[in-house]
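Can you give me the bound-state structure? Components:
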Amino acid sequence: MAQPSSVHLSQPQTSGLEVTNLVVSYEGNQVVHGLDLSVQPSEFMTLLGPSGCGKSTTLRCVAGLHKADSGTIVIGDRVVSDGANHVRPEHRNVNMVFQSYAVWPHMTVFDNVAYGLRRAGVAFPEVKRRVDEMLDLVGLGEFAGRGATGLSGGQQQRVALARALATRPKVLLLDEPLSNLDSVLRARMRAEIMRLHRELGTTTLYVTHDCSEALSMSDRIAVLDKGRIDQLGAPVELYDNPANRFVARFLGPANFIAAEVVDMRGDEIALVSPVLAGSPQFVLKDEHAKRSSLSKGAKVDLVMRPERLALRPRADSRLDNHFPAETIHRDFLGAKSEVRLRSGEVELVCDVPHGATSVTGTGETAVFIDPRDLTWVPREARSAD
Amino acid sequence: MDFSAHGRMPLEAGSRLGNALRGVLDYGAIGTLLILMTLFVGLPVAFVIISAVLNDPLDVTSGLTFAAVRSVYTSAEIWHAAWQTIAMSVLVAVASTALGGLLAWVVTRLRLPAAGFLEMLIVIPLFLSPLVGAIAWVALAAPRSGILNDLLAMMNAPEWMRFDVMSLTGIAFVMIFHYVPYGFLFLSSALRNTDANLEEASYMCGGSVPSTALRIVLPLLRSSSLSSILFISILASGEFSVPAVLGAQGAYEPLAVHLYEAIYGFPQDFSRATAIGTMMIIVSLTAFYFYRRSVRSASRFVTVTGRGFATRRINPGRWKFPILAVFGIYTFISVILPYLALLFICFTRFRTGDLATTEFTLYNVMTVIAQPDVRSAIFNTIELAMIVPAICVVIGLLLVYLHERLKLPGAGLATYIATAPIAISGIVFATGVFVIYIRTPLYGTVWLIAVALVAHYLAHTVRITSNGLKQIDVALEEAAQINGASRLQVLFSILAPLIRPSVFSAFILIYVFTVREVNTSILLYSPSSLLLSVLSWNYQADGSLAQAAVVGMVQTVLMILGIILARLVLGVSTTKSTM
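Here's the bound-state model for the whole set.
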């Protein structure tokens, strides 16, 4: 273990994390199938996915709380797990914030935060200095002497954060840390975690099933499904160019419209959607290399985010990216209205911002989407939504 | 970052050595536990069965014979006793579960003053051993000489109003009141773990309190009630002191009494004793099988969340005073009356006439205290009451930790063996211990009794500590580990302080059980390992009820002192020890 006292707060200890070909079983079932993940020093990486996708299991393998069947885990330049041998969690110099906070009820706030430093044999004056520093950092300076049981959920979460950061871990692991908080506290703690990450620069692996947490906090997101990474990238990249239907859906609401490629020129693709009223033609700008897998006649699903659709009074069939539709229902949600439309065989959802110019009422209308706002995913056999 | 460019540090050899060392320790612990469990739990049970078919029950090499088994299993008298044992045990279990359940519902669901105190009143009878309780009731309600009957006679009450505790109803009555606290502990913990919203939903739908109790609470508690009934049946079927003291003029002789007579009668017949033992094992194992099943299905209805449900209690309104009166009557019958009777006979000379001529005297107390036996019995009892809970708690904790936390293979088996004796009556288990260890230096020492009692009570500590451990979030330990604590440090800095309340309540429970225990020690004591409970048994067997009562009071004082000490020093609450 590195001498913790030799490092100062302002000079974060940055280490990367490299997971290679990780295979993990849990209670007899294989839940992670050959996962590769590379986290840069000081990066905030999020594992995003539904429950049972293997994200928490992966995190626990990095922590050393669960043993992988095979695959290597490297923290900094140190192999901590290679399938056959596993460094025990207490020797990995990582730390973790648990979903249930796991603040020890029989200790004071101070003792909770000091625990890891004491285990590392740090001398008392230094322990005191660093615990006070951490508690000030999370805004619990006055609570040091309090018992841990009387704290609110948000305060317990701060104690858990301070405790995890006090040991200056090479990698900070967070396992759905906000899921037990109410929505107001959740937003506040989200900002808090990001501020701490900015100030300390600790390499962070964050597990969540909440896409807004993932999108707002991460440098990069790895979307997991059924024990595999479906797509890994920056939040905006994932949102705008999902690799498949699952990623597109998981990051936010989306309309999927079946279409066929009719022409490809430069970075533009022309498609026709026979399922929409009037079989309209679409043009989309695809600046990514994804289109190299396409050829004329390929069947794809167009992805239309509800907030990118614009309603027009009347359809003009000569224009691309334009199709007639019928408004069937309108939900007023305050800042926006969610409008349910039908066009041809499909129903789709469109967000209309609330304001003086917004189109109201129901009946005949037209829908427009900008070529740069349109993207696509490969057609999948099962497309039950 | 390209790790291969500057080379990786391989897994260090230190952690491999550490892992290997831990493995040796783990499996060493499991192996030791398995051997201990086999030696002290498995063997005695096995030997009850083996000895029943040996020519000489104390010699394994003496060859097989089925004479004893045949004579027991074809005896009409024994079959009658078996039937009586089952009928009485089930009756006692149903009645005490019903009473205990009613009290549990009142305490957990109604808004009553001093609920904690009421709860304590319900469990106080646990401290009165069944033997001493039976002695008190003989003094109170023996057909001719009982104090209550004397009082009735003084009031010229008609003959049909007289009490007779030395009858079938009398035995059932004393046993039911002894087991009510068990039923209460079973059902109150089930009620606490059942979401009261289920009942509140019924009130919302227009259900009255009685119809909710009948249609919602009762069905929800069906499995827990069944577990309680089966558990109490097992205990009651092995209870030998109450029927032996009250006797019912031979109208009720359960298997346990037959077994006792085979060993202490003339001629002494161990083959017969072990053969009766096998029959008792069959009866209680059958009940145990259904008990395990009922426990499993009971957990279907239970929502274990660790935190209690915030329930709005029902205001009993004008029922408050009748309900409090019921508690008063219960306490009067189960605690005040027996202890008054005990005090009375402790301090009175043997009466020939009526109550009016009673002389108070210190004679009984003095004769008992003058006995050198008594001092050594007190010393032995205290020694045993320290050894047994301590060993039980240590082994129980170790088993639960290895099994439920480290999930080591073999730990499950060891736990299973350790909890099995709960299905075997104390007197039967003692028979097995007796035939194995009679030829060893252990025989005649307090340690032999300790072995039998540890094996018999281990199941309680395993259950209590396992419940305690289940309420501790594993993440608390993982958080310590990831903060750099080794496994031992996690054990001592996190687990030990958090599980302390369960450990203390297990200790207290076993302490009380050990002080009052007579079913096991009656077969295993020797003049050098006399216990208070055995002494009081012997006094009453000689007809010296007063001396037996004095010894019984000393036992009670020991239990109360132990509990007060635990409360003051350790801060343990006794009523919270969940069954």
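A couple of observations. Helices of chain A lie at 55-63, 109-119, 124-137, 153-166, 183-200, 211-217, 235-240, 245-250. The longest strand of chain A covers residues 29-39.
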